[in-house]
Amino acid sequence: MKIVLPGGTGQVGTILDRALSTAGHEVVVLTRHPRRPRDVAWDGATLGPWAEAVDGADVVINLAGRSVSCRYTPENLRAMMDSRVDSARVVGEAIAAARRPPKVWLQMSTATIYAHRFDAANDEATGVIGGCESGVPDYWAYSIEIAKNWERTQTEAPTPHTRKVALRSAMVMSPDRGGVFDVLLRLARLGLGGPVAGGAQYVSWIHDEDFVRAVEFLVAREEIEGAVNLAAPDPLPQRDFMRVLRKAWGVPVGLPATRWMAELGALAMRSDTELLLKSRRVVPGRLRDAGFEFTRPGWEAAAADLVRRARAARAVPGRPGRVRVGGGWAHSSPRP
Known about the structure:
By secondary structure, this protein is of the alpha/beta class. It has eleven helices and 13 strands.
């Protein structure tokens, strides 16, 4: 198949690019900074010659959007909104204008769209969309609006011949340097991976191998449209999540952090406490109903695998972590 990845140079895009290429697919990456023959330049906001890559493609997987690993200032929040909405809009325009439109358009979304809650898990049928919670910072609601507008832009795109799926993804765990797992593992190795603000908030996650397999599954299942949660079926409270990770690496103790300590840490890392404090209790209702089977459904086995691959990468400088796809192995580290 010919697969086009707008915004395919980030962590998730790199995982998919390498995995799908290794599986034998023709992968074209739309990027602002093309470096390889199969990279195509685009600006993520306006139609241009790049749209020719979409015409005749089998699949488009749009991953474009400003990174959420930043301080949630008004300027950065607006950039998150604009980059996601603009890229989804222009991808829709390219598909609508194509003489041979792709069969399916997978649009990245986020599990953050669901409410901050502890009492029950959020699936696609019964989950509570966030934005009206009490006792949380007001700007958290803006993150929900970003997600809603992101999905709405795809839904409203006039692409009648292309099936559309919104990927409400949890955090994708891989041993890539600079990815979310790398950050969490660094905290654990330093002895800082204890409960944050009590640690009752849930962490939803998905192993990189299952993320790739879920994408392949959704491409193949022609009856699935709309929003789909990409999350392992075993979200955990943050205190348990980090305890399992510490055990996998062999760190006996993780110092706890209060809310204000988390704020200082997020400030030092140029990130935001929403990523640490929001309870994301998300489960994969539609995937499980459709018969998808996770290879790493539990965090203990997933963490052990990720730690093993992270150790291997550190033992041999320059060796990336790898994810098994379609009977082979695909590198999952960022490109040089």
